[in-house]
Design a protein that fits this description.
Strand content: 15-25%
Shape: elongated
Helix content: 25-40%
Distance between the termini: 103 Å
Number of helices: 4
Radius of gyration: 29 Å
């Protein structure tokens, strides 16, 4: 039996509607996939940017330590010493001959830190960045240090925007330098006292050494992105004060 034109009326419309619905579903799926991929790529890019900022902060802290042994210190970026730059007006400095004794005053600080210089942290503040309340005490002016605050380094051109962001305590980045007293316990080997946290090789002919542990923290541009890096820096010093702290 053949269908007459009257019997076929409306069938084409039904087929078109089905194809339109399938096309809409495909478009929605594509848009959702694109949005998810963009979200993943954006989060990864933000993490990488924060990681680079944290690395730059480590290098800035290293330069902070190196400047302490220069006479006169040589700040970066054409800056001149004064105020925070070169730690001219700071109570605690890394250049003092009796550094270990001078840092005894830091033990009375809530965080054990002042202007980025710290005595060795212990529990429960060892990993303060994992505690929101403790982090708020460390990541603030007068306790931590910003990029270039001591060294005079600056972000120019298309440099990492995180490093120059000081609009709030939970923006930009910070660094802290812990000072460890170390002694030569056998030729070429020094160890932290009294808990033997670290052992590093040193030149026994250059006398005692100071070991610094640098912690840097950088916040991403997106909420929830944070990178924390640590490294150890060894610098030879002669005739250190043997006071424990």
């Amino acid at each position: 039996m053949f269908l007459t034109p009257n019997h076929q009326r409306g069938v084409a419309l039904f087929v078109v509607v089905v194809f339109v619905l399938l096309s809409m579903l495909l478009a929605l799926w594509s848009a959702r996939s694109s949005f998810f991929n963009e979200l993943v790529v954006g989060n990864d890019a933000d993490y990488q940017r924060a990681h680079e900022a944290a690395q730059a902060l480590l290098q800035d802290a290293e330069r902070d330590i190196e400047m302490s042994s220069e006479n006169p210190p040589k700040p970066l970026g054409g800056s001149v010493c004064g105020g925070d730059v070169c730690r001219v007006t700071h109570t605690y400095k890394l250049s003092s001959d009796n550094l270990l004794a001078s840092l005894l005053g830091l033990t009375t600080e809530t965080t054990g830190c002042s202007k980025g210089i710290c005595v060795r942290r212990g529990n429960p503040k060892q990993d303060f960045w994992n505690d929101e309340t403790a982090l708020a005490g460390f990541a603030k002016t007068g306790v931590g240090m910003r990029y270039g605050q001591v060294t005079g380094a600056a972000v120019t051109g298309k440099g990492n925007p995180i490093l120059s962001d000081v609009t709030a305590d939970n923006r930009g980045g910070w660094y802290w330098i812990e000072v460890f007293k170390s002694i030569v316990v056998q030729p070429g080997l020094i160890t932290d006292e009294p808990n033997n946290f670290m052992m590093v090789r040193a030149d026994k002919d250059k006398g005692d050494a100071i070991v610094y542990r640098i912690t840097s923290l950088a916040y991403g541009r997106k909420p929830g992105t944070m990178v924390v890096l640590q490294q150890t820096h060894l610098e030879q010093r002669d005739n250190l004060d043997e006071t424990e702290f």
